[in-house]
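Internal tracking record. Fields below are filled automatically when a chain is submitted to the structure queue. Please do not edit lines marked as system-generated. If the sequence contains nonstandard residues, flag them in the REMARKS field before resubmitting.
Queue: standard
Priority: normal
Entity type: single polypeptide chain
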Amino acid sequence: MLARTLPEEKAMQHRKQIILSLGLLVALTLSTGCGEKIQPGTSHNGEARTIKAPVAVARVTQQPFLYEAVATVTAQTASTISSKLMGTVKVVHVNEGDRVKTGDLLVTLDQRQVSAQLDQTQAAVKEARRTEASAESARESARATAQLATSTYQRYVRLLKEHSVSQQEFEEVEARHREAQAALNQTKAMLAAAQFRVQQAEAAVASATVSKKDALVRAPYDGKIVAKMVDQGDLASPGTPFVTIEKEGLFCADLVLPERHIQSVDLGLQVEVVIPALQDVHLTGTIGRIVPAADERSRSFMIKVQLPEDPRIRSGMFARVLIPVGSAGMLLLPQLAIKAEGQLDGVFIIDEEQFARFRLVRLGKQFGDSVEILSGLTSGERYVVVPPLELRNGDKVEVTS
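SYSTEM-GENERATED OUTPUT FOLLOWS
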C-alpha cells in the first residue's frame, strides 16, 4: 500500500510546480505589456486639456448653530364642547371636517325634560306671587288695625292723665296696641318671605330657560370640526364631550427645549419651521409662549411657536423647528460645487499647477444654497465653483470670473 502512495504524491507535486511556473510566466508577460504606472484618478491620454471654469477659495465662516427640535403642530385655539345638562342626544348636526360659523347648531338634546322643568318653575313663580299678594293684603289689614290701636292707645294715655279712665281700662287698651303692632310686624315678615320665594322661583325660571337653551349646543366661533364623540341616541350627562372644534388658520408648533438652551430663546424670536409632510416646506415661525417652569423629569421647557397662516397646515402634523442657540465656524461651499460620483460626493480642487484634482468630501448640514464640508477640504484651498460637464480629473483649469 505504501509503495502505491509515494508515486502518486510525487506526481501531484510535479503538477503543482508546472502550474506555478505558468502563473509566473503570465505575470511577467502582463508586467512587460504595461508601459508606465498610472496614478489612481489620473488620465494620460495625450496632453492634458484646458477647461475654463470659475474658481474660489474655501473659507471658514461663522454660522449660527441650530438646535433641531421635534415639534407637533397644534391649533392655537381649540375647544371641546361638552354637555351642561343630562339628556338624550337627539340630533348631531356635524361631522369631522365640517366647517362651522359662530352660532351654528352642533348638537340637539331632547328638550322634553328641560321643558317640563321650565313649566314647573313658571308655575312655582305664579304660586309665589299669589302668596306674596296674600301676605301684602294681610300686612295692609294689620297696618290698619295697628293704626287704630295706636290712636286709641294715645287717647287713653291722655284720659289716664285726667283720671277719666281706670288703670285696668288703660292696660287693656295698651295690650291691644301691642298685639296690633306685633301682628303688623308678623305680616311684614310674611310678606318679606313671600317676596324672597318669588325671587327664588324667578331664578329657577331663569335657570330652566338657560338649560333649555343649553339643549341646543352651538359653535362658539368660526372653525372646523376635528372630532365627534357622540351619536344620536347617546345619553349625555354634565361634562360629556360632544365635539372638538379648532379655529382655522391659527396653528402653532409645540416643542420641548432642553434647559441648557433656554437662555438662547425669548418671546418674539423668529425660527425656521420645517414640515416634512408638506414637501419639506420651510416656514418662519415666532416664539409666542415659553412655559416658565421646567419639567422636573426631563429638565426641559415647553415652547409654542406661532406659525403663519397656511391652508395646508393641519393639527397633529410632524414638524422640525431650527432654533439658533449659538454660532460656530463652518466650511461652506456652494451646492453647485459638489459633484456626485455614485453614492460619493466630491469637489474639484485646483493645485499649484492649475490642474483639477477630484477629491472626495463628507457633507454636513445644508444652509440654503450652501452645504457644510465636514472633511476632505481645508480652508485656503481653491476649488471649482461650478464644474463644467466636460471637466475631468487631471484637466488644466483656466480661471474665469
